[in-house]
Amino acid sequence: MVNAISILGCTGSIGRQTAAVAEHTGIRVAALTANRKIDLLEQQARKFKPEFVAVYDEEAAKAFKLAVADTDIRVGSGMEGLIEAATLDSADCVVTAVSGAVGLKPTLAAIDAKKRIALANKETLVCAGELVMARAKEKGAEIVPVDSEHSAIFQCLMGRGEGELHKILLTGSGGPFRGRSRATLEDITPAQAVAHPNWSMGAKISVDSSTLMNKGLEFIEAMHLFSVTPDDITVVIHPQSVIHSMVELVDGTVIAQLGVPDMGLPIQLALSYPDRCASQFEHLDFWKLRDLSFEEPDLVNFPCLALAMDCARRGGTAPCVMSAANEVAVHKFLRGELGYNRIYDAARGAVETIPRQPADDLDVILAADTAARAYVNEHF
Ligand code: MG
Q: Which residues 6+ apart lie within 8 Å of 249 measured at CB?
């Protein structure tokens, strides 16, 4: 069990759920960071009394500093503030729940400081998987995944020997539009796209779940996290989201991890690992479970997954370019500026336009990220 955590991105969906787990388990919160939602941040800061809080947005940081002037909380800002929160002496674990490429530098800084990384920021592994995993190995920093699928695979692999794994079976619900054709998705609205059948998540990841881009990003993450090739991962659509992923061992045995679809569970495990502790979450009731069903992913009507698998094979900066272009396109869609099916067009266009480079240098990765964003802003 970890002693104290820094939560990077504490006002988002994962950040708030991490705060709830910390409260339930009595884990101390040493630092919090947010982008600019300072009202919620102030509530959290007054409740958890962290020693340090960073607000990424400089103006919001000034306002926050005034708001907590009656406390002894130290306040930082910008990337410097995020890095300070990620490397604070008194925290032994950093929960990386920020969204976007902004999470990269603080995660690397936390690895250098040998913190446990409870990894919830997708871009870290999608954009810089080789760099991050190599650095973690070199520094001896543990990376424990928070995403439910990767947590499931991590749990299925606990205690297994080298050479026992044959295949990773990455499950996904198929999202709210499973079974529909791409042509019928043309006029999907943001409200329809964010209504996920099983999971409660932020808007961006909900849209990604509906396009299956989220499964594609998870495919790339799994490759890095578990040191496997794209051929070692099979995506299995499992609409009930009860099985959170599986591993197939060399003898054909399949190990699955099951539980209620609540992100609090993998968050708690990332903090308690290698121990387990009682939780406040519902337990699985087999008598209430409907059938568990499985189907192949529809790569034709949900081409974002096929694109991500292709980028996983291309390697280098291709996954980063795809992810950044997708992120900008999804935000445009959420603002009503881009049609639903154009999200894929934007991601594919960026991958085909921006030259691929090796992804072994942070500056090269961040430049690819910037180029992808500029491409979508200019052409879509
Ligand atoms: Mg997931």
A: 160, 164, 165, 166, 255
How big is the chain by its Cα radius of gyration, in Å? Answer: 20
Q: How far is the CA of 368 from the centre of ligand 1 (A)?
A: 25
317 by Cβ neighbours in 10 Å (0-12 / 13-18 / 19+) ranks as buried
Map out the domains of the chain as residue ranges: 4-145, 150-260+285-314
* Residue the block writes with tokens 């990765």: 365
pLDDT digits (tens, 9 = 90+) for 57-101: 999 999 999 999 999 999 999 999 999 999 999 999 999 999 888
User: How many Å lie between the centroid of ligand 1 and the Cα of residue 201?
Assistant: 10
**CA–centroid distance, residue 59 to ligand 1 (Å):** 33
Q: In what order do the strands lie in the sheet with 74-77?
A: 74-77, 52-55, 28-34, 4-8, 93-96, 116-119, 143-145
Superfamily (CATH) of domain 4-145: NAD(P)-binding Rossmann-like Domain (3.40.50.720)
Tell me, yes or no, if the pTM score tops 0.90. Answer: yes
Q: Which of 330, 328, 325, 334 is nearest to 353 (CA)?
A: 325
Q: Are 303 and 182 in contact, with CB atoms under 8 Å apart?
A: yes
- Residue 196 scores a pLDDT above 80: no
CA quadruple 180, 198, 308, 33: dihedral sign: positive
- For residue 76, the CA-to-ligand 1 centroid distance in Å is 31
CA distance 102 to 46: 26
